[in-house]
Amino acid sequence: MAENNNVSAEEKNTGKFEINVEKPINFDNMEGQAILTSREFCRKYVNPLFKPVFADYIGSIYTVDQRGMAQIVLYFDRKDHGDKVTATSKTPSNDGMINESVNTVRRYANRAVNGDKYYFTEEGKQGLEKFFYNEVRKRTKDGFKVDYSKVKTTTSLGGGYNGFNNGFYFGAPTGQQVTAVSFISPTKIAETLFGLEADGHRFEYDVHIIRSAMNQYAIASGSDSRNYLISVQRLDATRLNDLCAELGLIGGGIDMIQA
Question: In the chain, where are the structural domains located?
Answer without folding.
Answer: 22-246
